[in-house]
Design brief:
Layout: E1 3-10, H1 15-28, E2 32-35, E3 39-40, E4 47-55, E5 68-73, H2 76-81, E6 86-95, H3 102-105, H4 115-121, E7 125-129, H5 131-138, H6 144-153, H7 160-170, H8 173-188
Parallel strand pairs: 1-5, 5-6, 6-7
Antiparallel strand pairs: 1-4, 2-4, 3-4
Length: about 190
Amino acid sequence: MTKNIMIVGVGGQGSLLASKLLGHLLLQEGYDVKVSEVHGMSQRGGSVVTYVRFGEKVYSPIIDKGEADVIVSFEKLEAARYVEYLKKDGRIVVNTQEIDPMPVIIGAASYPENLIGKMENLGITVDAMDCVSLANEAGSSKAVNIVLMGRLSRYFDIPEEKWIQAIKDCIPEKFREMNLKAFALGRAEN
């Protein structure tokens, strides 16, 4: 059976590295894996979506509405934007950070209030946490992506040491220790 993960965020947040890491891990576990190209504006500030699909045999990298088992979101509004892609029993893992989109920046709109509560009111399981604080604790605000991967790892039957090995395989040595700490903090956060 194919599993579907959507990684959504804003350009410049590291969603490409997160999807690369996840794809690498799942290949090491023997799955057929398809990782889509990034859709959206990859420059800083634009909405970005990556699909990661894995299973015994995966034919397409695309995830349709109502098919995502998990949505990993780097920002609350991005989670809300893609909620219709989630399966009925799916889960959203979300960073509670708010990044104002252009309409908010120019004053044409305001940032929606209580997005986590609104998603939960739809019956969605939402695992929300302040990934920026944890990333800063690990040594860099840029480690939000790995904090989120740490959190996501709690929902897989893949041993923690395999995730750690994937980080070692995918992240340059000079950033490795910080990212391993970010992963551990995301995994352990209550």
